[in-house]
């Protein structure tokens, strides 16, 4: 247990239940970042000469971690950059299906353009709502979060794969930012067309890095207009007009993308089987206790499978009380969001539950 927590010094000072807002930086990533900038300080352009090999290694690390060929991996600075670039490659006459109240970087990016849009509701019957929306009018593009950032409601990869098989012509574009790093994910087996994820949450990779995973068919449905000198630089971007190169037009940040590679390698050392087991156990434990305390909304309480993100009923007074007890969490929507990762412990969670019980007795 100590080994899982030792790389994260902040855990010695707080009950950190806020990975859904910002993941912790492991010491190995911190060490890499210091060494990288020291190299830049003393080497300048000599370090840049190694940029191509470094970014190739990052692309290959991402592809290996999520089972996606490296020539179908694009490295982008954040989710929004990647998704907006993708949308500019979609004909504006295409119908888009969104989820009501999904992450603003998804819904705003679509609604700020001229796409015809339909919505499906996020509630305990979210899968049924999505299926009914497809039956009403099959969308050309379905853009959604795998895990909802406010409620923590999680769409199963199996449901999405089955839906994709029924509607193979629809482009499925998933935001994996609140999902990737919580369980083993096989992209090529998922049936999804595109997954985009920032690395600063559950992957613990720090800010300024994200990635896009594409299946073999995506390039035939997306025609990005973005281009730049870097669009044809590197092992996997050897020719002009290369698809992933259109998502990487300018200079790439070797500090931040290098951090992503170190973070992925660190998670492999921990073991994603262990990460998945612990995250699922914490999810079940939290759901059971929060239900006892009547802190969950109906749409979460009635679902069998849930992520490790929970939005409990609570006002600003409760939030300030939690913070006074060194509980790091966030206010989201109308409640208080708590999120649990593999480095948390059952002992920490029991302390949280006692704090909540004491507060509710007042």
Automatic annotation (TrEMBL):
Domain Aminotransferase class V: 16-349
Pfam families: Aminotran_5
Gene3D superfamilies: Aspartate Aminotransferase, domain 1, Type I PLP-dependent aspartate aminotransferase-like (Major domain)
GO terms assigned for molecular function: transaminase activity
Record keywords, A-Z: Aminotransferase, Pyridoxal phosphate, Transferase
InterPro entries xrefs: Aminotrans_V_dom, PyrdxlP-dep_Trfase, PyrdxlP-dep_Trfase_major, PyrdxlP-dep_Trfase_small
The protein's name: Aminotransferase class V-fold PLP-dependent enzyme
Source species of the chain: Antarcticibacterium arcticum
């Amino acid at each position: 247990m100590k080994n899982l927590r030792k790389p994260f010094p902040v855990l010695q000072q707080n009950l950190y239940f806020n990975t859904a807002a910002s993941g912790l930086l492991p010491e190995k990533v911190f060490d890499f970042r210091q060494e990288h900038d020291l190299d830049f300080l003393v080497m300048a352009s000599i370090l840049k000469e190694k940029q191509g090999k470094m970014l190739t290694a990052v692309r290959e690390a991402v592809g290996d971690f999520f089972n996606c060929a490296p020539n179908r991996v694009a490295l982008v600075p954040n989710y929004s950059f990647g998704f907006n670039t993708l949308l500019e490659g979609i004909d504006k006459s295409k119908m888009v299906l969104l989820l009501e109240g999904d992450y603003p970087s998804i819904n705003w990016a679509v609604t700020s353009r001229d796409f015809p849009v339909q919505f499906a509701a996020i509630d305990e019957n979210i899968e049924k709502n999505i299926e009914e929306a497809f039956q009403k009018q099959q969308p050309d593009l379905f853009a959604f979060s795998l895990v909802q950032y406010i409620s923590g409601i999680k769409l199963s990869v199996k449901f999405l794969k089955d839906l994709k098989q029924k509607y193979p012509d629809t482009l499925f574009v998933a935001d994996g930012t609140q999902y990737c790093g919580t369980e083993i994910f096989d992209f090529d087996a998922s049936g999804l067309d595109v997954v985009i994820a920032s690395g600063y949450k559950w992957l613990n990779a720090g800010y300024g890095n994200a990635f896009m995973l594409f299946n073999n068919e995506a390039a035939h449905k997306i025609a990005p207009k973005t281009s730049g000198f870097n669009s044809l630089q590197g092992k996997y971007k050897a020719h002009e007009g290369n698809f992933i190169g259109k998502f990487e037009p300018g200079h790439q940040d070797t500090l931040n993308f290098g951090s992503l590679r170190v973070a992925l390698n660190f998670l492999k050392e921990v073991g994603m089987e262990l990460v998945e087991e612990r995250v699922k156990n914490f999810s079940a434990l939290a759901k059971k206790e929060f239900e006892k305390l009547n802190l969950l909304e109906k749409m979460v309480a009635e679902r069998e499978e849930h992520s490790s993100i929970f939005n409990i009923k609570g006002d600003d007074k409760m939030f300030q009380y939690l913070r006074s007890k060194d509980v790091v969490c966030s206010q989201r929507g109308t409640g208080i969001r708590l999120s649990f990762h593999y480095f948390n412990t059952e002992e920490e969670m029991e302390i949280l539950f006692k704090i909540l019980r004491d507060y509710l007795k007042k």
